[in-house]
Specification:
By secondary structure, the chain is mainly α. It has one domain (3-55). It is 86% helix and 0% strand. The longest helix is centred in the N-terminal third of the chain and has 26 residues, at 3-28. The relative contact order is 0.20.
């Protein structure tokens, strides 16, 4: 895997991590709909990016 693909994979994993952290913090602080939505969108962005990276071999 070249440097570009590794970087894209790293960003995908980081976005999934940010999304999970947002969901956890939102749940711990009582929960607001915007926090849950933002967390789910970050997770979806990261997973979507990893999916596209894997499917374009």
């Amino acid at each position: 895997m070249n440097l570009y693909r590794s970087g894209i994979a790293l960003f995908g994993v980081v976005f999934v991590g940010i999304g999970i952290a947002l969901l956890a913090v939102t749940a711990a602080q009582g929960g607001a709909a915007f926090g849950y939505l933002l967390g789910v969108l970050f997770v979806a962005l990261g997973l979507g990016r990893l999916y596209l990276l894997r499917s374009r071999r």
